[in-house]
Structures are given as C-alpha cells and as structure tokens.
Amino acid sequence: MDVIVVEGTHDEDKIKLAYPDAFVIVTNGSEVSKETLDMISKLSENNNIIIFTDPDYPGERIRNLVSSVSKNVSHAFLKKKDCISSNKKKVGIEHASVELIKEALENVYVNRNINNSITNNDLFDLGLIGNENSAKLRYLISDYLNIGHPNSKTFLKRLNFLGLTKKEVEDILCKLK
What is the pTM of this model? Predict the structure, then answer.
C-alpha cells in the first residue's frame, strides 16, 4: 500500500478528490511531531511512503524529515507555478488542479541512487554551481525533471537520487539550451 504524506488537511482533501481511497498522513505543517514521524517510520517498513509536500521551504523541510525516518520512500512533485492560490498569496498542493495531482502521483520518483555518481565538481564543470547563470540553469533542469526548484545542495541530492550521470545531465543541458 502507498501512504501519501502531505502538509495539511486541505492537501489531504484535494488528494481525496483525485483518489477517494488514498491513505494520507497529514504532518500539520513543518513542525512535524515525533509521534507522526514515528508512525511514518513504522508504516515505511511494509509500505511505500510517497512524500508530496508543497514546493517551498517548509515543504522541503518536511520532505527531508520524513525521508530521514523512512525506509521505502518515493517523491511526488508539483511545480510552484501550478500550486499558487487564486489570490496569488499562497503556495500549496491544495491549490493545484486534480489533474495535476493525479499526474504527480502517477509519476513518482523512486530512489535509484546507487553510488552518488554526480559530485559538486561535476556541477561546477557543467556550470550548475559557481557562476552567475548557475541558478537559472539549475532551475531549467529542475523544471525539465519536475523535481521542484531546490538549492544547489538539494539539487545535487536529487540528481543522485534519480541515478543520473554527469553525461545525462550534460545531455539535458544541451537539450535545454
């Protein structure tokens, strides 16, 4: 069984519109309780945990906390532009369309990281860190891979999580330029 971890009850409500029988755990924001983390950890022993948090800093914090206690983890992502409230003041899964939520949950990323094949030196060589266009290039690749828009450290983790090689990232860059 898949267990979907979200931040709030409105996120859960939106997921239930897409999948009425989904098993959803709500963290109640970025200050995830020890009890909630313990429950997720226990559930991860025999179930796949799909982390589906908002594309913002608190969402990343929750993603990292839940990942650190879970054995079987997958990640679902939505682009920030697809999660903005109608008044343009809030960002969250609850503001995305049911169709985009279904798409994200049908295309989760499973950890393929075998040996951290990409290094900080590789990112530097590819211009993804250390120059004035680095952030823009990381944004383009992140958007292409639909992995959120993380900082450089998290970007490196996600590339390795996906099991990408330096050559594959280079090919993506060439395609996007």
Answer: 0.81
